[in-house]
Fold:
Amino acid sequence: MLLDEITPLVLTRNEAPNIGRCLEKLRWARRVVVLDSGSADDTVAIARSFPNVDAHHRPFDNHTDQWNHGVGLVRTGWVLSLDADYVLSDELIDELGRLDAGGDIGAYFVRFRYCVGGRPLRGSLYPPRAVLFRRERCRYIDDGHTQLLEVRVGTTAFLGGMIWHDDRKPLAEWAANQVRYARLEAEKLVSRPPGDLSRNDRIRRTGFLGPALVLPYCLILKGGLFDGWRGLYYAFQRLIAELLLALFLIEARWGRRR
Structure:
């Protein structure tokens, strides 16, 4: 049974509003590794209240090294890598139980439903992510403010079940994180040749197309107008993120010329 060969890995830091809901959907796992980077709230206490959780601490330096360290704590053949604001759907859990451990698959991608205030939106900009992978075949590598899973051996496939992205931390924490993310993302976009970037990153690299396009994309193409205040809330969040990135791009380019 593949479920017995999967160890969920969750990174945390001040995730008390989220971690309980995440771990509640992981009770099927024999062992869940939680790697905390210095929470000042009840995150670790909540995590340790679940009998299958093995909590560890590592000071944070960057996402890539943090994830790779966490993978090193896993003893099973498969890793299910999750942020603390991810909640597995029942359909995905059932699908994991039916998977065949054989074959040449190195990693599985999962699609997300973005939630605001606990309710899913019709659409979002959140991309699919490789969350289930063979521990010995994959490694995290840097990609701007985040990390990418590099599949070194084997192919990839998509799972049909969804993950709910349901972050309920205060807006002020989100805003503080966006400043850090935008700085790192700007450094990535200006340091790489345009040919090495995805289409979306080339658009964002212009510094003006991202902010100009994000509102109509979220509200019209992704149906945010039909999600009421939640759709507006999400669209304005994405606009702020794109404006911050544009400002850091200007600063990075001006600094280079100076």
